[in-house]
Predict the 3D structure of the following.
Amino acid sequence: MRILLAHKTSKLETLMEHHSAELEALLRKKDPSVATLKDAHQRHQGNLEKTIETLEALADVKLTVLPRHKVDKIEGFDLVVAVGGDGTVLDISHKIQTTPLLGVNSDPVKSVGYFCATDAMHFSSVLAKIHAQDLVPAKLMRFQVAINGVVNSYPILNDILIAHENPAAVTDLILSLGEFPPETQKSSGVWVSTAAGSTAAIRSAGGYVMPLESRDVQYLVREPCPPHIGAYRHLKGIRPLEAAPQFTSRMEAGRVYLDGPHVSQPLNLGDVVSLEGSAPDLSIFGLLEKNRD
């Protein structure tokens, strides 16, 4: 069995690499801004090492271990193990087409881990269930983003945010929804999520939690600015992917943020954002509805 283990780099390691002098000074002062970094790093590192040891002890496993930022296109593996939290699972999911994914929460003390099936302590028992075919992967719907009809995004597992590139500026969009007249809206942005992403930011903004097996998408206009006359009709809703809203930019400096803050695409005046159903489902082990309460 060929397994890729992709792991996050702890915040402490990342800061040490780029801001070592400043970080060391804060650590010496026991500044509250860095008070939890060492403990979190140690928990992550210990759980990562335990997970690797478990896999190395298996005779039929050919193991490849990489930090997640060094993982490119994933091919030729029977299983991908993502060690970290939901951010690591999201990052790795963008590089997966059909290979099953298993998330291992490396810091269950602090990390929510909606997409993580297990932690290092219970990892071996979950592996045994997978090997015995007692645990089958769930299939999560994903979509891709098209701008002016051109798809150039990786598969979206959680959500996108359409907004002005300046978070203090107004987001100005025309929302087009099937048979309804287009509606010009001003707000702080629009969330669009999958069912899997409906427990994330869109729920915090007032959205609904959707069943994991749903093939629909949900949209929600964030902090709408009331129009001068009347009221907006389409501030949130759940639609089939093929009937998802389209968004026309009335901004010269908009962005589409893809599954978080790290990757985005520019939106210019007149650009049209639409959703495409060409992305394959993500196969992921151990995703439980009870984690979504």
About this structure: Residues 37-56 form the longest helix (20 residues).
